[in-house]
Amino acid sequence: MVDKKLTRRELGLASAGAIAGATMLGRGLVHAQEATPVPAGGPPMVLPPGVSVYADGLFNPRYITFDENDTMYVAEAGDGGTDAHYAPAGDGTPADSEVLSYSGLTGQVTKITSAGDRTVLTGGLPSYTFGTEVVGPAGIAYANGTIYLGIGGPGPATALIEPIEYRDSVVSIDPGTGEVKLLANIGEYERSTNPDPNAVDSNLYGTTVGEDGMVYQADAGGNTVYKIDPTTGEFSVFAVIPGVPMPGFQNTARGGNEEIDPVPTGLAPAPGGGVYFGELTGGPFPPGAAGVYRIDPDGTITTVATGLTMVTGVEVSGDGSLYAVQISENFLAQPPAAGSVVKIDSTGAVTKVIGDLPIPNDIAFDSAGNMYVVVITTSSAGTPPSGMVLKVDMSAVTPDGTPADGGATPDASPAVAAGLAVETIDLAFKPNQLEATAGEVTVEVTNAGVLPHDFTIDALNVSSGTLASGESKSITFTAAAGDYQFYCSQPGHKDAGMVGKLTVS
């Protein structure tokens, strides 16, 4: 899936720049190369209400798109291959021996009509392995009778493995014939120019077509979004995505800065021009550190929603609502948490629409407004194809995005009680709004993140003291009616957005 350098000193799982990762079992997930979750079993036996299986038996599906006839096109990363690529031999080494990756032409685009007829539209596309990771065809978009496909590649080994045709490139595909044409060779530009400018690393991910008719491509490995003219193939850097601040976490792979890789993933056209993009972030994938952002036509990046985790897909529905996919709500939990789809309103408030999804990656909407979710988006090379597309009947969802059964609640909704509970997650509070009545107030603070955190209200002289990961503390204080800001006083955490509001009435 998305391959990023591991920079997880605190977790002790792997060294920076490792290509093959450790293994962590739990909740049907396996922690694989570059921290990509891989299924160790099938989907949940009981799907959430209003959800059914639309397509199964897919080879590492990544993204989906619809044409004007509600025909779905699925980008499948494939199953790698058998051609071995070796690490360069060092001085005195008689021959190359370490296999960096296997490659083959097993990537494909599958076509599924609204009547359910399914065919492989285009096969023989590049597919690579790293450990149990498989990368290949990823982002896919349809516009004006043409399919645009972003094909990923070997990420950290981009400069070490000779590319095969269409690797790390955006291609166009004729939906009638399946004919493929090269549009833009992004990997070549990364190897020669490296706009990030950290390590040479390319793995194309989300693809979309903007309101201006331009094709936009996220390079998750290169931390860059590109703008491509579909008529000429000329392209330019639309935006280099800055690192995600992580105070106290020194990242040697990013020049020693206290930040992690942003890892831009899914893209969607933004109203008025530009695009939305989601962040996966790099290791250690702290809960709450990801978000959804907008790149304006002039390249300016603005924040849309924060406090999210491992975002891989963003989409705008027919009614203009913005949605995002979280591949896991807390990948550091034991076992790792399942993923979800959330809805984001104009204020940036987040509402969970559907949860308990096994490794979701992308969503799309048909002309009737039904949502489709790609799940089990990555599995080990050599295993039977287990990817799926689920169909969500949105008539079972209330206008604010909350399932009619009341099973989900807005992440940012106020907690109201005499005894309150709040979690600190890197770098956010959950919930970030609390309500209480005047008088004695008790707050139970739990550090559900990786870094040390605290709960501080200066106006009330309240502090929980520093809490280590997994530690909890109950604090009681007296508060008169009014609004009070609470925040984490650890260096840099407040500036990174770790704040909330307590309303006392």
Keyphrases for this structure?
single chain; mainly beta; Neuraminidase; 2 domains; four-stranded antiparallel β-sheet
Rg from alpha-carbon coordinates: 22 Å
Corresponding CATH architecture of the largest domain: 6 Propeller
The number of E-state strands comes to: 41
Percent helix = under 10%
**Helix/strand/pairing class, anyone?**
mainly beta
- Structurally, the number of domains stands at 2
Principal-axis shape: globular
Strand content: 35-45%
Average pLDDT level: 84
CATH-derived topology of the largest domain = Neuraminidase
Q: Can you put this structure into words, describing what you see?
A:
The protein has about 500 residues and is mostly beta strands. The chain has 2 domains: about 25-50 and about 65-85 and about 100-395, Neuraminidase, CATH 2.120.10.30; about 415-505, Immunoglobulin-like. Helix content is about 0%, strand content about 45%. The strands form 11 sheets. Strands 5, 6, 7, 8, 9 and 10 form a 6-stranded antiparallel sheet that branches. The chain has a 4-stranded antiparallel sheet with strand order 4-31-30-29, with no helix packed on it. A 4-stranded antiparallel sheet has the order 11-12-13-14. It is globular and about 70 Å long. The relative contact order is 0.13.
Secondary structure elements and pairings:
Blueprint: E1 25-26, E2 29-31, E3 37-39, E4 51-58, E5 61-66, E6 72-76, E7 83-86, E8 99-112, E9 118-130, E10 133-135, E11 137-143, E12 146-151, E13 169-173, E14 180-185, H1 186-192, E15 204-209, E16 215-219, E17 224-228, E18 235-240, E19 244-245, E20 259-260, E21 264-269, E22 275-279, E23 290-295, E24 301-308, E25 311-316, E26 322-326, E27 339-344, E28 350-357, E29 362-365, E30 371-375, E31 387-392, E32 415-416, E33 419-425, E34 428-430, E35 433-436, E36 439-447, E37 456-457, E38 462-463, E39 472-479, E40 482-487, E41 499-504
Parallel strand pairs: 32-35, 33-36, 35-41
Antiparallel strand pairs: 1-2, 2-3, 4-31, 5-6, 6-8, 7-8, 8-9, 9-10, 11-12, 12-13, 13-14, 15-16, 16-17, 17-18, 19-20, 21-22, 22-23, 23-24, 25-26, 26-27, 27-28, 29-30, 30-31, 33-34, 36-39, 37-38, 40-41
